[in-house]
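Section: Multi-chain targets

For targets with more than one molecule, the full set of components is provided together so that the structure can be written out for the assembly as a whole rather than chain by chain. Components appear in the order listed by the source. The example entry contains three components.
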Amino acid sequence: MHAPDGFINAPVSAAAGLVAVGAVAVSLRGARRELDERTAPLAGLVAAFIFAVQMLNFPVAAGTSGHLLGGALAAILVGPYTGVLCVSVVLLMQAVLFADGGLTALGVNITDMAIVTTVVAYALFRTLVTVLPRTRRSVTVASFIAALVSVPASALVFTLLYAIGGTADVSLGKVVTAMVGVHVLIGIGEAVITALTVGAVIAVRPDLVHGARGLRQRLKLRVNGELVDAPETGPEPVPVTARGQRRFWITGLAASLVLAGFVSFYASADPDGLEKVATDHGIDEKAREHAIADSPLADYGVEDVDDARLSGGLAGVIGVGVTVVAGTGVFWVVRRRRTGEEADVTSPSGTSV
Amino acid sequence: MGAGHAHKLYRHGHSPVHALPPHTKLAAVFAFVLVVVSTPREAMWAFAVHAGLLAVVAYTARVPAGFLLKRLLIEVPFVAFAVLLPFVAEGERVDVLGLSLSVNGLWGAWNVLAKGTLGVAASVLLASTTELRELLLGLQRLKLPPLLVQIASFMVRYGDVITGEMRRMRIARESRGFEARGLKHWGVLAKSAGALFIRSYERGERVHLAMVSRGYAGSMPVIDEVTASRAQWSYALTLPCAALAVCLLGWML
Amino acid sequence: MTNSVTTAATDAVTASLEVRGLAFAYPDGHQALFGVDFTIARGERVALLGPNGAGKTTLVLHLNGILTGGTGTVTVAGLPVGKRHMAEIRRRVGIVFQDPDDQLFMPTVREDVAFGPAAAGLRGPELEERVDRALSRVGMAEFKDRPPHHLSFGQRRRVAVATVLAMEPEILVLDEPSSNLDPASRRELADILRSLDVTVLMVTHDLPYALELCPRALILSDGVIAADGATADLLGDDELMRAHRLELPYGFDPRSVPAATSP
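Its structure, encoded as tokens over all components, is:
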């Protein structure tokens, strides 16, 4: 959903714009670190791919079809930094060239559709790949879940922005249930397509799947008929630390789940929480009929979500996503510092970025 | 989304608006939309004046009204949302034709419709009077990070190539009797998407080789730079300035 | 003959390209080159022939230092290919890739042709003049401001040649220049290549084209130079041709057509 101008008020749009600028700046640096001088052509081509694949229609039933949003796919295939850049550029071009999405809403659109989807999907994907057994099927499963959660997470952030800077006084609960509910269903489609596409790429060029780099085999080099171990292209994790890392991830995921459970419990215990609003979701019958007939989401054949348990459960799912993101952030900071120290020890002259 | 891959909005012409440097137009449209978004929704007359201002620009640029109006269709999903608003919003309600509507929701709907429409119209005017290449130069001139502009220009350059590949893959599928009809065909489509990704990525690598072969070392050489005179700037900024006056009046009245 | 590239300043005796003992294996373990040796003198037009998978593209990517890390040396006009002179090497070795869509990455023809010289530091009218000259040498001057994807395939290939000519290279390396061209574009390109007085190394499957343009040919097979001689002699040696999976088109007899003469 590309938000148009005026959907979110000016101050919140500006704030979201700042968030987008910051994230894009970080991604520019990150992508350069990952791809160095190849960044521009590779990210440009991947952006063109995302742009094209958004036009690939996946038929659902009798004349209706859905299409890919691509945030999760981009994150898994090319990594979070390049992913953010690619989707942001697609959104920028859509706004400037096709008037799709307002210029002042660009910050909002980049924040929820480029940053949130990519970061949530990648964090979740990496966690799952680390925790699950090291097989291709795990990669597919991880892609599925990552994409599934990324879409409602994006909707949730959009709702949050709407809650702060929305220009109409709609109860937050209604927006949450409508947005998140519908987007879970969109997310299922996104998840299936993403998982299948990642599976298709991994079957042919596993080395191109950024998120599954840990699965690669050691390479051999044949020099004048003799087989020699190829020089390592990247830092190979030492087995001991790998195991330690895996334990870290499992603990983290378990903690996230507990926390998520707590969040959902809190949400349902609170009389003003999501469930309450969801059950009070009273829309005039006539109005509803009209609304659904005209709704852009009618394509997806979605009934309004009025199931209280579902919305509670969703809060849990989103909770996992958000917690994992926060946890990953902390983990990255800690690890970055640690590797930075190690680098300093091994090469006193080496400067890290 | 999916509005087509070519830059279909551009209309070739030689109007004064076409002749303006791209970065002045980008800045003017952005400022105009910002002013429109900041205009109080209660000042309905102000939006009429904003629309009038755009009409003047469209007239000067010789963009026909029909073209402009057709393009506004992109907003339809949000029109639907706006239609929904009066029914679901909170607060005081009024009865219109037997339906109970929220006053606040009505204002909200008007707000989204008016501002969104003006925003789309302004963007369409920009896109229909500025060539693709110029837009990229304009973004570059407006100090967008060079790497981002490079990514955008590669995307623009290869958008056609990649969608062309996608089309050929579809034709190849259909030539062999395959037609995607339902969920059970997603696997095949996803395989195509995967293959498309691999092709795109590998092309990216080849393009990089071609660039490196011609001396690329991480930054694009500056070949073109757009400049604008003071007169051109003031001409372009007439639009947002007039709109700003209207907006301020809207707040005061 | 159009404006010539001035190479007189350098010693005319120095070979344009010298390859010695080049061996290379890809990181995936596949070894493509097993010790390649050859020399190309200034002003020569040489065809590099070989079956699919013989290592032709791998060899080409060594000529301007995109692939390195194996053994052996490549020297361009006396300058060894290596990290130290990379910018100069890439200016001197102009590679025209097989797919012009990969080569033409800028939004307009003019900017694409200007890319190489601009990366080398050329600016302003001098750059403009260089672009115009390169485009007129391939007969594409009037397409200057068009986006590359609006051109026909043959036109794109010609612009691709211009992008490389604009760098005034010591040696022009063409990867399958005649592929996907209709007969007219194929002939036009041959005329253009003949009119240039630069050293040319042409990698191709198109044996009649090689015979038409290149007096000398190399056969690369299984990662080594299997034969080196006059193109007409090589194409006329049925046994040699069969041994390296090279086949002439139906009805084509290399002895019945005039071979290319030295430029």
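Residues 308-346 of chain A form the longest helix (39 residues).
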